[in-house]
């Protein structure tokens, strides 16, 4: 993804003008992009609560439950009309969105650059080595620091980035083994993985239509492949990179 954006001038100029690509799905739903986005997430949450996970999964955190306050702050502040590009990650990291409710949410970036405020609770069951301390977390999420650091350097102010782009994760859940090891969705048992990701795929299609973006950029190969497959199967004609 960063290689694709190696030419900052071309990237920002490309976002600054031009019409949406032909075939872009129109969205006639009522409400703001932020309200439609949050509604899609609430619907996904309701479905995810019905799932269960077996070994090697021992702990499941959902920051859209316990960090909803900060997550909603992020969405209401930065999910805006006219955004053309959706950056898509796979799922939260233990020191990023799991702590802050913000995708790639390395704490310093969230607090100092994005200026996100709010209360972060705790999951019902926590691993003793993976406590949720919210915006007070002192450990840095390397991928999040890199992601937001790149755009901070490129754009200067968040408003310039979010004028054209939004950032989202395909799956809102974080999985851990009994030892506290982080487990990604591809590491789940096959049937459980497909049950999970089919729900997330459907929610992604809903989100893309709600935001009316013309491009989805997968941050990581798995996110890109899932997005390409899900959007193509649903007939949502957007560019996926």
TrEMBL record:
Single Gene Ontology BP term?
A: base-excision repair
The record's subcellular locations are:
Nucleus
Q: Which GO terms describe its molecular function?
A: DNA binding; oxidized pyrimidine nucleobase lesion DNA N-glycosylase activity; single-strand selective uracil DNA N-glycosylase activity
Keywords (A to Z) from UniProt: DNA damage, DNA repair, DNA-binding, Hydrolase, Nucleus
Q: Does the keyword DNA repair apply?
A: yes
Q: Which SUPFAM superfamilies match?
A: Uracil-DNA glycosylase-like
GO annotation, cellular component aspect: nucleus
Q: What is its main location?
A: nucleus
The family database entries (InterPro entries) matched by this protein are listed as:
SMUG1 (IPR039134), Uracil-DNA_glycosylase-like_sf (IPR036895)
Report the sequence similarity comment from the record.
Belongs to the uracil-DNA glycosylase (UDG) superfamily. SMUG1 family.
What protein am I looking at?
Single-strand-selective monofunctional uracil-DNA glycosylase 1
What organism is listed for this UniProt entry?
Nothobranchius kadleci
């Amino acid at each position: 993804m960063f290689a694709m954006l190696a030419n900052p001038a071309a990237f920002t100029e490309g976002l600054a003008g031009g019409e949406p690509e032909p075939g872009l799905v129109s969205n006639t739903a009522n409400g703001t992009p932020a309200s439609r986005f949050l509604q899609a997430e609430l619907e996904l949450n309701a479905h995810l609560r019905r799932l269960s996970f077996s070994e090697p999964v021992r702990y499941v955190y959902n920051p859209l439950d316990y960090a909803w306050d900060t997550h909603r702050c992020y969405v209401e502040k930065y999910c805006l009309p006219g955004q053309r590009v959706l950056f898509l990650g796979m799922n939260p990291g233990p020191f990023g969105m799991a702590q802050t409710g913000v995708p790639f949410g390395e704490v310093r970036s969230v607090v100092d650059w994005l200026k996100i405020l709010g209360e972060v609770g705790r999951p019902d069951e926590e691993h003793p080595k993976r406590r949720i301390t919210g915006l007070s977390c002192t450990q840095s999420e390397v991928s999040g620091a890199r992601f937001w650091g790149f755009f901070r350097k490129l754009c200067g102010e968040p408003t310039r980035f979010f004028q054209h782009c939004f950032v989202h994760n395909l799956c809102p859940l974080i999985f851990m083994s009994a030892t506290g090891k982080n487990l990604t969705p591809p590491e789940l048992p096959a049937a459980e993985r497909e049950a999970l990701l089919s729900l997330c795929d459907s929610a992604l299609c809903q989100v893309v239509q709600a935001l009316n973006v013309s491009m989805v950029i997968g941050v990581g190969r798995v996110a890109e492949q899932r997005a390409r497959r899900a959007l193509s199967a649903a007939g949502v004609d957007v560019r996926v990179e």
